[in-house]
Design goal:
Blueprint lengths: L2 H22 L5 H30 L5 H35 L1
Helix pairs in contact: 1-2, 1-3, 2-3
Amino acid sequence: MSKSSRSLIAFLTGCATGAALGILYAPDKGNVLRTQLTYRLSKYREKLQDVIEDLIDKKNQPDSYARAEGERVVNDAREKAEKLLEDVDRLMAQIKSQTT
């Protein structure tokens, strides 16, 4: 995996984790925090889906060593992004269950 791909994944992971922890420790009421967290997590989910789609689109470039390397990077990034999406979905489900 290239350094830039690892950096992108680390950045997205850090953003999601930092935002979730920051909101959880913010001094607002619980329902306000859950609403904010749900909104932000849905935005991160959309961004992750866009990243996955971009990586998949770039995968269809002409045959070469770069393409093979790109496919490997895309697959690694897709797996990590999908895991992040699952984590976001799980957090959103927990938040929704707490509000009802």
